[in-house]
Each structure stands twice: as structure tokens, then as C-alpha cells.
Fold:
Amino acid sequence: MTDHIRNFCIIAHVDHGKSTLADRLLQLTGTISERDMTAQLLDSMDLEREKGVTIKASAVRMFYTARDNQKYEINLIDTPGHVDFGYEVSRALKACEGAVLVVDATQGIEAQTLANLYQALDADLTVIPVINKIDLPSARPDEVAEDVGSLLGIEPASVIRVSAKEGLNVEQILEAIVERIPPPKDADNVPLRALIFDSHYDSYKGVIAYIRVMEGSFKSADVLRMMITRTDMKPVEIGIFNPGMKPVTSIGSGEVGYIATGFKTVHECRVGDTITRAAEPADEPLPGYRVPKPMVFAGIYPVEADDYTTLRESLDKLQLNDASLTFQPETSQALGFGFRAGFLGLFHMEIIQERIEREYDLDVLFTAPSVEYEILMINDEVITIDSPAELPDPSKIVEIREPWMTIEIITPTEYYGPIMELVTKRRGTFIKQEYPAPHRVQLDFQVPLSEIIIDFFDQLKSRTKGYASLDYQFLEYRPDVLQKLEILVNGEPLDALAAIVHEKDAFHKGQRLITKLKDLIPRQLYDVAVQAASGGRIISRANVKATRKDVLAKCYGGDITRKKKLLEKQKKGKKRLKMVGNVEIPQEAFMAVLKLDDE
Structure:
């Protein structure tokens, strides 16, 4: 019977206290002893603790005796907290019947609060609104409760007010979960369908799939099948999270647990796939499966050329845990051998960069991020490129299409002007505005992805004193007047610094980049010309002046012809050096592209 089971997740904007609330629920239900308790228990990665963001979803089973003296099994499915991981959030929501919506009493409703709430309502979940951090001096619980009440169409008084840090009123949330969230449907006698909502790699047991059984049940001896990838396997182990992994002999409908598959890569066991029994398979998989598509691409190169194989191994290992990371080898004239990697977004890229440097102790160089373009060729063929260096000859191109995003910004009304200015500067178009609460406005825009991946978020935060929040979704590919901006050092194109830009921005971007590079490239014994070229012409040039070596130091007096002879000899030497000399480009030069301010 499933009457005593409740499955729920916690949804919130980044840093609204989701992980702290999960900690309190684990303590209250006695799932974890005081001795073993650490802050942000479900966030096991150091990076998650530092950035205050849940990166990997996880699950835990708690037992709670409610006021009606019944013992309930409550499964908390934790969701990632950043907009880059939207697909993982949608799978975690599908595995639940209810969601606890946490809103910060000091910040109020923000963009991801709404985005996650709409996803939860789409998935038909019962939403329990909770206001957190009421213990803070700057908390405005009454004001925020009214905003949440008007958003959900409920009485502000029915919104639960808690302080997860102090443990205040947290018991009310458990009671609300038991009372308001419906139990999962009891369907043990139909063919098995279990949803994979996350997975991680274990070096002993292979890929471990986190599952929610929607229909049917299975035992540890059953042969199971992945319905999308069509692979069969006999589980190494099945079990539940309590909060560590605890093996069991069978898992029934409505329950949450894990299957150690023994697979060697996460590609065979994708998030969103449906597991069924090989002997009596279900007719069709659960709906909503898709392969996460990388949106941002960047080159990864080892600083030391000898580290190439180590870098390959570390990317392979990271891919075991993160199926959304894609990479393939590429070569650059300036940087040597490296990889072209695809990420879900800029935050995802930052996480991967930090993990490579920390977990594998490698010095790596990331080139400026770019996006994937669709190119329509003269022969009607459409090709996709994710690196500006791959752009075909302009004479063979009919049009270049770039990805556009719909972005949703929620901000206090007084920052309306600065945001409008920022988005229009980035080629954005205004769509509509709504007022989800008094003094807060929700602005919807359409913007090219290439304009928001570099420093859009930082600019947005600084113009609104940190109050605005952002959520974005892919919209479509649109043609525009785009061209390649190349940087030439000593006449040689630097492929790693090339970019695809809008025709009207090429001149300004080229000029600003040359001004920066002129100061960053170290001086040689000869003049180095740094040029920006776009649309078949040079649009900007600067010279890195030569360092002078005084060859006349040893000539004290004597005939002038001696000095001339030495200077002629030096001139010839410099000419030869210029032909064979190789200009070292420092790492800061590649980062300069990211820091082109909008002055």
C-alpha cells in the first residue's frame, strides 16, 4: 500500500535556504544523528558548499510520525539550484507529487522562484509555499506572504513562515507535507516503469541510477531494460537513500531508490530514461525525455603541453558523472592540442573549469565561450559550427543563423530604465511586462545567446545593486548580418581569439580588443603588428614596440663607420628574427575577450 508514502521536492531561487531547510528536516525526523550532522548535508561537493548552489540532485528517505500517530515514509528529492540545470529540475519534479516552494523573506519572489513554480504547476504538483529566513532583521514576512498569496491565489495567512537556520516552525512543513500532498498511486500489478531522475558514477558499482518507481515493482534478481537506449542489465545492487545508500531486496510503486547498474558510462543510463523489466516490458516510456543540448562551447587547452593526456583522462572521468558535458579533440595554431567542449551554460562551464583544476590538479586555459551557429550554404546544405575558426569561406555562405533566447528578468521597479538600456545595447527586443507583486516588475525580452553568455549577468547585478534575477530558455535560430572578427599577430591569424560578431559591432569590438592586446602581448626584440580584420578588411591596428638592445655600448669613441656597421648588423638580425620569431601570447590575452567593457 502506498497510503503512507509522500514524495516531494524543495524548489527555490539560488540562496533562498533550500539546503539548510533539507538539513533541518533530516534532523527533525531523526534520519541523521546530531553527531553526523554537517551543514548542507546533501551538498557533498566542496564546490556546492562554497558557491551555495546545489549542482547534483540527490535523494533521501525520512520516516516521520505525524500528529495522527501514523508513521509516514517521506522521500525528499533534492533539485539543482541553478538555471543551467533546468532539465534536471524538470525530471526531479516529475518524480514527485508535491513541492515545497521556499521564498526568502528578505529578497521576495525572484526569477527562478517563478520559473520553478511554473514547472511544478505544469507537472501537476501540490505546492506548499514557505517563507524562510524570518529571523533576519531585514525580513519582510508579511509583505512577501502577500506577494506569494496573490501569485498562488491563496490566503497570505496560510503561507508557512519558518527559519530553517534556527529550526523555527519547521515541523509545520512536515505536517503540511503529510496532510496536503497526495500519496502516489498504488500500481504494483502492472508492468514496471521507473523514471531515472539523476545518476552518478561509482568506481565499484558502475553507474548508479536514482529512480522513482511510477508503476509496478521489481526485485534485485530481475533483469531490467532501459527503454530509450535499449540496453539490458542485471542490477549489481538495489536500495534506498537513508541518507547513505542502504541495499534492499525489492522496491515497490511510489517508492524512491537507486539501482547500481554496473554500466561504465552515464551515456547508457541517461537522466529521464524509463526502466522496465526485460521479461515483461511496458508498452511505452514515460513522457518528457530529451538529451540535454550544450548551449555554450569553449576550447580547453593544457598550459603545459605534456598534460594533454591527463586532461583527456580528467574530462573522461568528469563525463562519467555529467552526461551533459561533451568534448572532442581540436588543434589550435596558437595553443597546440586541446579539446572543444560543450556546456549547458556559463555557470556549468565555470563548475567544470574549477573541478578540472581542483580534482585533477591541472593548469588549463579556457578560450572565450562561443555558441553554436547554423550556416546555410550556397548548395542549400545547413551545417552547424561551434567554433568561429570553423566558419567557411564567406563567398559560399547564404546566411548565418544564431541562437536566440527568451529571458525573464524580475527586478524592483526603480531599476526599469538601466535594465532596458542594458538589453537594448545587447541587441535585445522587449516583449512584455507583468507585475507579479507590488514594486516588482517582470520583464520579458528576446536576446541573442552570444550577447548574454559573457558578462550579461554581472552587468545586470551591478546595475540593479544585486536585486534583479534572471531566467532564460532557448527560443529559436534566427538569421542576422554576422561576420568573423579575426585577430592577426605579425600577419598570422590567431584562431583562438576569433569571434563571430554582428556587422555593426565588428569595428568597436575589434578596436577595443586591439587596445587591450597591445598592452598584454610582451615586447619582443622587433616590432609586432597586432591587427583586427573583419569583412575582408583590416579595421584596427597597433604596434607592440620593440625592446631596444644597446649594441653601441662597447663603442667608446673611434670612427663613426664602426657604429654604423654594428647597427646594420643588428638591423639584419632583427629582420631575420621577425621572419622566424614566434610571439608568445599570454593567458590574459584570451581572457581579454571576456572583459571587453561596454564603455
In short: The longest strand covers residues 397-412. Residues 508-533+541-595 form one domain. Residues 40-45, 47-57 have pLDDT under 50 and may be disordered.
